[in-house]
Amino acid sequence: MTLITRRNVLRIGAAGLALPFAGSLAFGQDGPLKIGFVNVGPKDDNGWTFGHWTGAKALEAEFGDKVEITFVESVPEGPDCERVLRELAQQGNKIIFATSFGFGDYVIKVAREFPDVIFEHATGYQRSDNVGTYNARFHEGRAVMGTLAGHLSQTNNIGYIGSFPIPEVVMGINAFTLAARKINPEITVNVVWLSSWHDPAKEADAARALIDQGADILVQHTDGPAALQVAEERGIIGGFGQGADMSAFAPKSHLSAIIDVWAPHYIQVVKDVQAGTWVSDDSWPGIAAGEVVIGAYNEKIPADVVAAAEAVKLGIADGSLNPFTGPILDNAGTERVPAGQIVDDAGLWAMDWYVEGVKA
Amino acid sequence: MSTELLIAVIITLIGASTPILIAALGELVVEKSGVLNLGVEGMMLIGAVVAFAVTFATGNHWLAILCAAIAGSASSMIFAFLTLTLSANQVATGLALTIFGTGFSALFGQAYTGKPIELFRSVFPAELATHPVWRLVFGHSPLVYFSLIMVVAVWFFLKKTRTGLILRAVGENDLSAHSIGYSVVLTRYAAVAFGGAMAGIAGSCFPLLLTPQWAERLTAGRGWIALALVVFAAWRPFRLLAGAYLFGLVMTIELYTKASGSTGFLPSEFWAALPYIATIVVLVLISLRRSGQSAAPACLGKPFMPAQ
After folding, report:
1. Which CATH architecture has domain B3-288?
2. Domain limits of chain B?
3. Domain A2-134, what fold?
4. How far is Cα of residue B163 from the mean position of the Cα atoms in its chain?
5. In terms of C-beta density within 10 A (0-12 exposed, 13-18 middle, 19 or more buried), how is residue B16 classed?
6. Cβ–Cβ contact B140 with A under 8 A
7. pLDDT in tens, B1-33
8. Does A200 sit within 8 Å of B215, measured CB to CB?
9. Portion of chain A with pLDDT greater than 70, in percent
10. Are A2-134 and A138-261+291-359 in the same CATH fold?
């Protein structure tokens, strides 16, 4: 696998210069299937990009030398990603995974120029003939974390550190709160919005602000472990890893984690492309498909609480439990989902309201 | 608001203000000598990653701060050589230093992502800080006391010492200072080195004081706030202290208000906008007070080119 970081970024530039000559040679050859990944963060971010890096490695393990992978790190969401996407396509990559929401417009634009290259855009919503989208039902994992929090919180006050109030984050807050209040209806969830995915110092200060005002469990929907470290330092009940296991940062406070596993989707896409059966669609699997995995439970959690969390996980996996089953009231007291009904996928992606118990 | 909570807010706001204050004090001295170094953010990142690496390897926080200062200072020497010896454009060179620092710290820090260290906590015995009010006096990391001492030290140096007077003269009128025999370039080299060391120490506050980890772009733009603060404070150390704590206050109040679950009678967007509103209000107040002359050093940002 070729890893393109800032260190060897000059190399991709040089490769770009050599392209007019190399392109014609590469054409029609029966070499390995070339696959590119464009990522917003470094592979060592302990979270989002690390998950995609693990997925890329799983592709290599599955297909061996039948695939040749280029993994580009730390590409800003903006015009620069268009250049990287185009260069990857010119270098003969036949599948390109763009793993951040903000790449969307550029993926669509570059895909028009390269109709024989297949693009897959993570967390996106725009598709075309050669652009598919994929995501994972992280909110299912949030429901399991909420079950743990409902059992464990003693102050009934849970702090939630959010990045931006977009549907993906809002549905996570709601799934978490619904599950927690199912166990303990006294629970309230206080949300602090940071307007950033990555500002560790501000995440830590938000965690301090929440703990100083009574929160004994923290949840974060930002990319790093800063809040967990504050939880460990202050000795509150705990918090959760986001995207990956973060127990190294908070051995006592890391209750469990939602782990992103992209390998099943990546392997499926490559198989479809090899068989010539790939079509543009939207893939949104969750716990059942093994794309959302619940991490190890902290040993301090009582066995019956672990059992309750596992029951929710298994219920979601076999389809007997939907985290968004009515009756659901919003935090202004209006009934949003009648008893017995669920929120469908379109409803989830349009979610701009909070369930009862959320203060945001 | 209970006393306990009030003190918790103050302690958090002091933590948030400290790196900005240290970096801005360094930049204040640099600008007083007539040099504009926009590389603060980059030097802070270099200081942050070096402080993390040294703490991770040795566990010695004092050594980590020292190394961060040396690394910050060393990186500022690149800037100094280009702008003072070769008379390159200061704005462009400073921006380049920020880009360099961001990339260098990301590269050097790759080995350290995902690893935790210990915070640099108060060195006073814990018994002194049991009561909340005493916590306010004795409960801080040495970095906080360092920042406060440096406010007085920088003020004293600029106002009360001969060397400080020379430095200001170089910043206000480099040709005159040159003509009466002071070395403009050497003075500016020293000022830039001091600013680099302070930026390095400011960077070390991130892993040692705020969040004990390394991540790319850990400082998340605080270097730019420090730069703005110097202008905001009209190049005066005590006003800089007030400005840094005011910024810390509005940033912290926003988080505490949202975390309380009630935003009072105002929408939470108001609290998010408050730092920017405060900036505009203070800038208007400052510009209303016409003192007849600009507070900026007269030679700020101009290359020194004596007649041959």
Report:
1. Orthogonal Bundle (1.10)
2. 3-288
3. Rossmann fold (3.40.50)
4. 22
5. buried
6. no
7. 688 889 999 999 999 999 999 999 999 999 999
8. yes
9. 92
10. yes
